[in-house]
Design a protein that fits this description.
393 residues; alpha+beta; eight-stranded mixed β-sheet; 9 helices
Length: 393
């Protein structure tokens, strides 16, 4: 669906990372800014990193006033992308129900709902009976440590086929003249007088005056090539799926009080289960049984019938999580070096992050929706401490 060209000696822009963020940025550079002399460098295969290692959920139920419109734009773009890219991304509007199990969770849900309503995003409370009507298999244990009192519901939350996002962006970018170069690892970045001049790769040196970094899980490693220290920590995020079963669960379900456990049913019938980030830094892409045991126990308190399912597959991805939990889309102290650090909202933010990242690289000025997502916030102390992410930090 796309060419496999040899790298040219020079490009106007080089994007490091062939996942959804990098491929999306290349697409928007070509479409919105008519910049087509662009190379996307991927050390493995397209979508082989975090884009292919997530749970396909997209939503906009976030806490801060700068987060909601950004994620709302991402949801809007996701629902338009299949038509724009002429490629079926298998977007499935499911709705997300987050259980309320404490007065503290209720306060956060109300605050989140009030923030979202400012921007026209629907987020409403559900009673226990309303949850049971929506999800017939819902059967919470009467002995739960934190009984479920109700829930909060976002109707627009959706699931999107993760591989299709990478493939759709790749095909569209390639059609506009972007070079997508796989199995091409960046080993170093050259700079002179404080500005980038090109990248060292396993396929030779490539000259460029602008480099966009979109490498989830390895942001610190790549940024260190230009002596840039990013305010992030890399943590694994695990997920697993059951054997396929007939349709039983339409909504995406979140048990936030139990370490952010969440689950949904895929189009193939698998029950997909995950939890917040592991509470330790790591570059490993493998799971640990304790996380599976903890999250599965939480799920079975609410859906005991799932206890009869067999575990089919288990994996982990790596997240570069900024200290405040919000994305970073920013210039750096090195001229011509730009970073897109998606944080724990990686897959959710792909279209919006890619579009605003392309705008930043092309114009050298931030997109209006990403003005407060720059690195400057960590120096000024104006952090976007986001409570709508899923992590154990």
């Amino acid at each position: 669906m796309w060419r496999s060209p040899d790298p040219k000696q020079e490009y106007d822009i080089v994007i490091i990372g062939g996942g959804g963020h990098g491929l999306g940025a290349a697409h928007f550079l070509a479409r919105d800014h008519n910049i087509t002399k662009v190379a996307v460098l991927e050390k493995g295969w397209l979508g082989g990193g975090n884009t292919g290692r997530n749970t396909m959920t997209v939503r906009s139920n976030f806490l801060r006033e700068d987060s909601v419109p950004f994620h709302e734009m991402s949801l809007d773009l996701y629902h338009e992308l299949s038509r724009e890219l002429n490629y079926n991304l298998m977007v499935s509007k499911r709705g997300m129900i987050t259980f309320i199990q404490s007065s503290a969770a209720n306060r956060v849900a109300m605050q989140m709902a009030n923030t979202m309503h400012i921007y026209g995003a629907e987020y409403r409370m559900l009673s226990l009976d309303q949850i049971k009507r929506r999800i017939p298999a819902f059967d919470p244990s009467p002995n739960m440590r934190l009984p479920i009192r109700g829930g909060v519901y976002q109707p627009r939350a959706s699931m999107v086929r993760h591989d299709a996002v990478a493939w759709g962006f790749a095909r569209a970018a390639d059609a506009r003249g972007v070079d997508i170069i796989q199995n091409c690892e960046v080993t170093g970045i050259r700079k002179e007088h404080g500005a980038v001049t090109g990248v060292e790769t396993t396929k030779g040196f490539i000259r460029t005056k602008k480099i966009g970094m979109a490498v989830a899980g390895h942001g610190s490693v790549v940024a260190s090539m230009v002596d840039q220290r990013l305010p992030i920590i890399t943590q694994p995020l695990q997920a697993w799926v059951s054997e396929p079963i007939k349709p039983i669960l339409n909504e995406i379900v979140v048990i936030r009080s139990y370490h952010g456990t969440y689950f949904m049913q895929s189009d193939k019938g698998e029950i997909v289960v995950g939890q917040g980030c592991d509470p330790y830094p790591s570059y490993a892409q493998r799971g640990t049984f304790s996380i599976v045991e903890d999250a599965t126990t939480s799920m079975l308190e609410v859906f005991p019938t799932f206890g009869r399912l067999k575990l089919l597959r288990h994996w982990a991805g790596m997240l570069d999580i900024p200290y405040d939990g919000s994305p970073i889309i920013s210039k750096t102290d090195t001229k011509g070096f730009y970073v897109d650090v998606a944080g724990s909202g990686g897959f959710k933010t792909i279209p919006a992050a890619a579009k605003t990242f392309a705008h930043l690289i092309a114009t050298d000025s931030p997109h209006p929706l990403a003005e407060k997502l720059g690195l400057h916030r960590f120096a000024s102390g104006r952090l976007l401490q986001e409570g709508g992410v899923s992590s154990n930090r």
